[in-house]
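User: Structure please.
Assistant: Input sequence and predicted structure:
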Amino acid sequence: MADTDTKSQNDELRMARRGILELAEARGEDFASVCREEVLKIRRKLANIQRFRKDAARTNERGIPYAPFVDRVEDYVTTRADVEPTLKRFQEMIS
C-alpha cells in the first residue's frame, strides 16, 4: 500500500512540476522564480485559513475561549450516565 501511495504522490509531483514549467515558459521566467511565487500564494492562503480558524472561537483578552457559566450542575446532569454526553456537548460549544 505504501508503494502505491508513493507512486501516486510521485505522479502528482511530476504533473505539478510540468505545470509549473509550462507556466514559467509561458511567462518567460525561470522555474525557480515561478516556484517561489506559487509557494508564496499557498502560504498566503494558509495564513488566511489559520486566521479564520483562530478568530472563529470567541475568546477573552487573554485568549481563553468563552464558555457558558453553569450555576447548577443538576440542571444539566441528573444521572451519572448523563455526564459524558453533557461534557462532550460543552466541549463542542467551546471549541
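The radius of gyration is 24 Å.
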